[in-house]
Specification:
heterodimer, A: mainly alpha, 76% helix, 0% strand, elongated, B: alpha/beta, Rossmann fold, 11 helices, 39% helix, binds adenosine-5'-triphosphate, binds magnesium ion
């Protein structure tokens, strides 16, 4: 069966990408909420926030990118849940295919959809005055971290999609993910937060990821943040992947 | 041994419980190559459970089942290459068009010329015109026809049809019946479940009734009719229909 894994995954990815092109609103909606937040924070609250950096949109963008991904993967859980409900999932299971291809199709689709949303959000940020002198290597590093983060939360979305009992349940897992950047260095420097909140903010994954991306865009040294960020992403990815695969095995055997 | 090599589906001592609910309590039957076998049973008798076990979607608690000579528990990959399933509820992709659904399955079955296969099936199931439309716009009957068409892709030697004609209008039912008969004539082995006794009467070479976890009868239509006492035949002054046989055997416990 393994011989078919790539072919079957390609076919199944093509199928769910087609779902996205048929309802492009999912990508727009994914991009819209973070864009609205960006407008709100830059033009309404931004004036009152002192980040110590010259441009608030430069400061804000990394966190907004993570929020974009967190809201985008909710659709992955939704699409997987819909497949389970509609019976098409069982049809796939009854075909002589590489069975993990069913999950990989959704995961790769998530990656593509989120990258498109991210490009849209970065485009809007540029219009709002976001500027960076980052070179190709720094951009690639940013893209790499965002891809890793997307994969990690996508596998979380797979867990949610496989275990949900209702459509709302399938996407509810993304709410805490969307909220997490608010308790991080994404919007305001953590130094301004009261003790316990600050301790949480400085030790949760979003802060290290945001700081790394911010440093890469500002052409500053990333320090140890990048290693903490990578450790979080890879750790989360492996844990979510293992959990999702175990859940899937139980579901289909 | 000649008999057993002819059996394409063999089920022995199959048991399955959902928590404390014992659905199958030792189910046995054989289906010979190229025949149509109908599994009858009331709602909740366990017909779908049997079909799901045979199609490797569910594990039995006890007993064995083979499809095309392969054990469903130990050789599920081989089994999946041998059958195709039309489940009780249409399993189609609503967002894709009818044609795209067929192409998708043909590709997943690793066949050449998926487009050509799709067009042939669309024509065969009177869906050519609707083929380019999203399935979400299809009527229940069209959806069911597409669902069955998807199951015929790749000509697997065994076909499972779980209540294939539920919700179809009389004409569509006859179309499906004709397709099923045609399949059997070409050597495909068909296991179908149904609530419609006339469907079993018209189509099946053998009929089995699943009741309270067991197969309580298994035979040809003629054999089943002999199970009724002749007095009943005289009283109604006509041949008992399968419905009479069914209701007598299943009794009044419902
Ligand atoms: N996943 C499940 N969990 C718990 N109980 C189940 C599950 N699937 C089926 N059952 C129960 O097992 C029994 C048999 O179900 P099954 O679907 O096999 O019956 P059926 O003969 O196909 O019925 P129908 O004619 O209504 O389709 C029913 O009582 C049903 O409620
Ligand atoms: Mg059923």
């Amino acid at each position: 069966m393994a011989t078919h894994l790539f072919g079957d995954t390609a076919v199944l990815t093509g199928r769910s990408l087609r779902h996205i092109t048929r309802s492009p609103d999912t990508i727009i909606t994914t991009a819209l909420m973070p864009i609205a937040m960006m407008l709100l924070f830059v033009y309404v609250f931004g004036g009152a926030i002192d980040t110590g950096s010259a441009s608030y949109v430069n400061y804000l963008l990394p966190g907004i990118l993570l929020i974009t991904i967190a809201s985008g993967v909710a659709y992955t859980a939704f699409r997987l849940f819909t497949d389970l409900q509609s019976g098409i999932f069982e049809r796939f299971q009854s075909l002589p295919i590489a069975r993990s291809g069913v999950l990989w199709g959704h995961v790769l689709t998530s990656l593509v959809a989120n990258l498109i949303s991210l490009v849209i959000v970065v485009g809007v940020a540029l219009l709002m005055g976001f500027r960076t002198g980052a070179g190709v290597a720094a951009w690639l590093a940013v893209a790499g971290i965002l891809v890793l983060f997307t994969l990690a939360v996508t596998w979380l979305a797979v867990v949610a999609g496989l275990s949900a009992k209702s459509v709302d349940g399938a996407s509810a897992f993304s709410y805490p993910l969307i909220f997490l950047p608010f308790l991080s260095s994404a919007f305001v420097p953590t130094e301004t937060m009261p003790g316990p909140v600050r301790a949480f903010a400085e030790n949760q994954p979003v802060t290290s990821i945001v700081n790394t991306i911010r440093a890469l865009f500002a052409e500053q040294p990333v320090g140890s943040d990048i290693w903490i960020a990578l450790a979080w992403c890879v750790g989360l990815l492996l844990a979510a992947y293992a959990f999702a695969v175990a859940l899937y095995r139980r579901k289909i055997s | 041994m000649a008999m057993t090599t002819q059996s394409v589906i063999q089920v022995q001592g199959l048991e399955k419980s959902y928590k404390e609910l014992k659905v199958l309590r030792g189910v046995d039957f054989d289906v010979r190559r190229g025949t149509i076998f109908a599994l009858l049973g009331s709602n909740g008798a366990g017909k779908t459970t049997v079909v799901r076990i045979l199609s490797t979607l569910l594990r039995a608690d006890a007993g064995t089942a083979t499809v095309n000579g392969f054990d469903v528990a130990t050789q599920p990959d081989k089994v999946r290459e041998s059958f195709s399933l039309t489940g009780q509820f249409a399993a189609v992709d609503e967002i894709l068009s009818g044609r795209e659904n067929l192409v998708l399955v043909a590709k997943l079955r690793h066949l050449d010329e998926p487009g050509k296969i799709a067009d042939e099936l669309l024509a065969r199931f009177s869906l050519t015109e609707a083929g380019g439309r999203r399935v979400a716009t299809y009527s229940g009957g069209m959806r069911r026809r597409l669902d069955i068409a998807m199951s015929l892709i790749g000509n697997p030697p065994v076909i499972f049809l779980d209540e294939p004609t539920t919700g179809l209008d009389p004409q569509a039912r006859i179309e499906v019946w004709n397709s099923v008969k045609e399949l059997a004539e070409h050597g495909t082995t068909v296991l179908l479940t149904t609530q419609y006794l006339d469907e079993a009467e018209k189509l099946a070479d053998r009929i089995a009734i699943l009741h309270q976890g067991h197969i309580i009868v298994n035979g040809t239509l003629a054999e089943l009719k002999q199970l009724l006492p002749p007095a009943k035949v005289e009283y109604v002054e006509k041949q008992p229909t399968l419905e009479d046989v069914f209701l007598t055997l299943v009794g009044t416990d419902k």
